[in-house]
Amino acid sequence: MTSQEILSKLKELGNEENLKGMAKYGINTSSALGVNVQVLREIAAETGKDNDLAVELWDTGIHEAKILATIIAEPEKFDEGTLDKWANDINSWDLCDQFTNNLVFHTEFAMGKILEWCVADEQFVKRAGFATMANYALKSPDLREKDVEGFFGLIMNECGDKRNYVRKAVSWALRNIGKRTLHYNRKAVKLAKQMKDEPIRPAKETAGEAIKELQKPDLLKKLKDKQEEEK
Question: What stretch or stretches form a coiled coil here (predicted)?
């Protein structure tokens, strides 16, 4: 399918009720059609991976076309300049998370983008940095102790950001670090307790979320069992 054929299909599949539901969840629907992500994944299965098509779809400016672009893009062939351009184009939290989950985390630039974007001024670029961190912390086989220490530094430095979409991504990253291993769980909880003492509301809120989730008995048992299996 060409980008125009896909765009025509997306417009046919657009749903007003879906748009209303998206808006309720804080999704920017100014350029959206109301097509759910599962349908986009079905279209992606038809098209297969295709960087050129992904760029064409992104450049249409349509919300769902951009999400589809993140799904069909080829991470191993993606260039850093386009990655930065897309990050700066983002205007909604859901697109940001699809972008990081489907694409950024899987590129060779993931770690560099974490370090760069987590200190950016633009809120969705900054969210993209911490969302990529959340993915990397939980899933990357290359995660090292020094990476985690660096992540903790970024989290501590940026936990005072009052913008909700940034704060939630900081919280997501911290919680995912604490879900990786029992060792990182203890370190993440220790950091959260330090953050709780900060005289800044966003830091306290993030700390409370992390402490509550990371000290759940079920999670701790899972991490202890995992540690025993790896001995």
Answer: none
